Amino acid sequence: MESVTSLLGRELGTCFQLMWRRIRQTLEPFGLTGPQFGILKNLKHHGPLTPTELSTHLLVTPGNVTGLVRRLIKLKLIEQRRLVKDRRCSRIALTALGEKKLQEIQPTILAEFKEFFRDFPAVEKQTFLELLKKLSRAVNPDGIAHPCSGGQE
Question: Which residues in the chain land under pLDDT 70?
Answer without folding.
Answer: 87, 144-153
